[in-house]
Amino acid sequence: MVSPMYVCLCVGVTDGQIRDAIYEGCCSYKEVRTATNVASQCGKCACLAKQVVRETLTELQVSQAALPYPVEFTAA
Asked: How many CB atoms neighbour CB 15 within 10 A?
């Protein structure tokens, strides 16, 4: 298992927490930021946080494209 990487030191948000927020229904960086408070303090982590969001959403799209019946995500 890969160790969690801290993306936001100010509020202690890891890449795993960002991914979990997406798996739980967040569909954008804005929604992830609201759910996790990532980049809500100094903002230095915003670029990395956006990268994790982008990569995770892309992975989900690719994995869903392989399914005969794609899973639909709804905002909670």
From this structure: 22
